[in-house]
Design brief:
Distance between the termini: 40 Å
Shape: flat
Bound molecules: cobalamin
Largest sheet: 5 strands, parallel
Strand content: 5-15%
Radius of gyration: 22 Å
């Protein structure tokens, strides 16, 4: 007689198995079940989690840093952007940090804060600089404060659930704009990747040596400088994709789709679409 398949093969997991797949402690999974966040059923008098419910839970957890929480609809982003821009220009780091803390305490997911608050404030600062209304020193100071805010918010992007692979985040050689790349790192981390953030202005030969030592599944490039150099990008793709079998994905203000695709890399415009796009690529 054939043994009947274990419960996990019939699509039901014990709470411990579910916790293992979520990479959390048993009690954390239990708490999620008690709060109704993670659906569970009783089978044989014990709690069981359906595999499809677990998958859905993982998907929702993945996006909940990037999308507005259901409870969070009333934030007046334009007013916050005005205020943060002012505080960054005035060098008021403590108040800027207080503003971000308040927005997060009101329920804004950290991913929203990146996309709807920090990004537009920094864009405005760039416009003021380009119009000659603020000097580069003020811009530097604002960037440093914004970097501190990102470092603090980064805590909220901790990876939950099983690993989707490894990802390196960086900017092109000669591109000093480090903040967008730091945001990409956090989104990938929240999306399930083990992220190795290499930062700005990474030379191709340094990337090559890094990939030899630490293999990556994904190399995510943030391109902000105008005139993305097609030759440099081609070299980067050759090192990462051809030599080391990593998917190269490029985004950012300076990432022209045609140039990116001509080099054999994948262009992604929106940060909150990045992990979904990588998933789709993995499936094909
Ligand atoms: C701060 C800053 C600097 C600082 C950078 C310091 C640092 N350590 O980061 C300094 C002063 C060094 C600098 C230098 C330069 N800068 Co500058 N800088 C800026 C500024 C004000 C903010 C940049 C920033 O952090 N933005 C916030 C990020 C989060 O926004 P983002 O880049 O749009 O990123 C979002 C998306 O694009 C996307 N994304 C980004 N990357 C990726 C990657 C992937 C894979 C995905 C999916 C998504 C994604 O997600 C992000 C989150 O929302 C911008 C203004 C602006 N519009 O951004 C100018 C700006 C980018 N700089 C500009 C320029 C021209 C320069 C210089 C070339 C100027 C010069 N002639 O010297 C130099 C670069 C010199 C060099 N070495 O090559 C221009 C670029 C113009 C253009 N693209 O045509 C801008 C737009 C200013 C302007 N209005 O003219 N800069």
């Amino acid at each position: 007689m054939r043994d009947s398949p274990p419960e996990s093969e019939r699509g039901l997991l014990t709470l411990q198995e579910a916790a293992d797949r979520l990479r959390v402690h048993y009690m954390t999974a239990y708490r999620w079940v008690r709060r109704g966040e993670l659906p569970a059923v009783k089978a044989g008098g014990r709690l069981r989690v359906r595999l499809r419910d677990l998958d859905r839970f993982l998907d929702e957890r993945e996006v909940d840093v990037a999308l507005p929480a259901r409870s969070f609809r009333r934030t007046d982003w334009p007013t916050h952007v005005d205020r943060l821009t002012r505080l960054l220009i005035d060098g008021e780091g403590v108040q800027a940090s207080g503003l971000v803390r308040k927005v997060v305490a009101d329920g804004a997911p950290a991913g929203e804060v990146y996309i709807r608050l920090l990004t537009p404030a920094l864009h405005r600062i760039g416009d003021l600089w380009a119009a000659g209304r603020i000097g580069v020193g003020i811009e530097h100071r604002a960037t440093e404060i914004a970097g501190t805010l990102i470092a603090r918010l980064g805590e909220a992007f901790r990876r939950r659930g099983p690993s989707r692979g490894t990802a390196a985040t960086l900017t092109m050689p000669g591109d000093p704009h480090r903040l967008p790349s730091a945001m990409v790192a956090d989104f990938l981390r929240a999306g399930g990747y083990d992220v190795h953030h290499l930062g700005a202005n990474v030379r191709i030969e340094d990337l090559r040596a890094f990939l030899q030592a630490v293999p990556m599944d994904v190399v995510a490039v943030s391109a902000t400088n105008p005139d993305l150099d097609p030759i440099a990008l081609h070299d980067l793709v050759a090192v990462a994709q051809k030599d080391h079998d990593a998917t190269v994905v490029v985004g950012g203000q300076g990432a022209n789709r045609a140039t990116v695709e001509a080099a054999g890399a994948v262009h992604v415009g929106d940060l909150d679409r990045l992990t979904a796009r990588l998933d789709a690529l993995a499936r094909t």
